[in-house]
Specification:
The structure is a single chain. The chain is an alpha+beta fold. The chain has 2 domains: 87 residues, TATA-Binding Protein (2-Layer Sandwich), CATH 3.30.310; 72 residues, TATA-Binding Protein (2-Layer Sandwich). It contains 4 helices and 9 strands. A 9-stranded antiparallel beta sheet has the order 2-3-4-1-5-9-8-7-6. The chain is elongated and about 60 Å long.
Length: 186
Amino acid sequence: MNAPTETIEIQNVVASTAIDQELDLETLVDDIPGAEFNPDNFPGLVDRTQDPKAAALIFRSGKIVCTGAASVADVHEALGIIFEKLRGLGIPVAESPEITVQNIVSSADLGHDLNLNALAIGLGLEDVEYEPEQFPGLVYRMDDPEVVLLLFGSGKIVITGGKFAEDATAAVENIVERLDDLGLLG
């Protein structure tokens, strides 16, 4: 049986950047092969990279959001590809625009079934949302690190809101300790 921290997998990294330049998305969609722009559905142009797999949401303001990457390194690589495409079209892009990680979503497995009713009471109702008729998991807002955990009866958890990959490890260690203290781990 793996330790819960050994089961952590990053599912999605979301980051943002900007190129300090207003963009003509109608022209860009014609110039970037495979790009999609449907302003009736979404105000940004979508350009997907294959290696690494990610999607760049490019907005008229010059803001760019990268989503779907499997690591922070993949975000930087995918955005590097996007920056090169834009430079290739004659759009001035700084040598290395600042990239800010907004959210890292990870998953892990505690290796034990969880009694979510007991957990809702044990973790303290002020930090917990648990409405099994609405959603099958318990939502726990952790202070340190500042993340949100979705805990499921199967022992699987989703960690969201982290800014660093280490936040998931700290969150899993923290929740395992809390559950152990409460006598709710198996």
